[in-house]
């Protein structure tokens, strides 16, 4: 999929833009999981610390997201990154 292609949810929510910038007011419940038009799974989380735009992350049981350098499980998917307390989408980067 080309870098300029807009990625959006296809199930169970249709049309949510998954490459949106991080926001302070949540648009979805934490841990909302969707499948996108690029075939990847995405999950909605809340930064517990500053997160870079493509940082590999770990997600806590309540939806908190922190940096997990070296992990390949989830990758932040928010242009400009996220400040602590902001909500954003993460893309599943492995099948495990």
Give a verbal description of the structure.
The protein is an all-beta fold. The chain has one domain. 0% of the residues lie in helices and 32% in strands. It is built from no helices and 7 strands. A 5-stranded mixed beta barrel has the order 3-5-4-6-7. The mean pLDDT is 85.
Output the keywords.
96 residues; mainly beta; 5-stranded mixed beta barrel; globular
Write the topology of this structure:
Elements: E1 9-11, E2 33-36, E3 41-47, E4 56-59, E5 64-67, E6 74-76, E7 87-92
The percent of residues in helical segments reads: under 10%
General shape: globular
The topology string of helices and strands comes to EEEEEEE
Gyration radius over CA: 12 Å
Broad structural category: mainly beta
Task: Report the biggest beta sheet as strand number plus sense, adding barrel if it closes.
Answer: 5 strands, mixed, barrel
| Strand residue percentage | 25-35%
Number of domains: 1
What ranges have pLDDT less than 50 throughout 5 or more consecutive residues? none
Count every beta strand, where a strand is a DSSP E run of 2 or more residues: 7
Strand order of the largest sheet: 3-5-4-6-7
Q: Can you give me a brief rundown of this structure?
A:
By secondary structure, the protein is mostly beta strands. It is built from no helices and seven strands.
């Amino acid at each position: 999929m080309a870098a300029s292609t807009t990625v959006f949810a296809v199930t169970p929510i249709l049309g949510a833009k998954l490459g949106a910038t991080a926001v302070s007011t949540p648009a979805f419940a934490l841990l909302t999981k969707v499948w996108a038009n690029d075939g990847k799974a995405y999950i909605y989380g809340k930064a517990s610390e500053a997160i870079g735009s493509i940082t590999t992350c770990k997600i806590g049981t309540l939806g908190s997201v922190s940096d997990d350098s070296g992990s390949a499980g989830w990758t932040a998917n928010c242009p400009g990154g996220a400040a602590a307390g902001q909500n954003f989408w993460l893309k599943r980067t492995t099948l495990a």
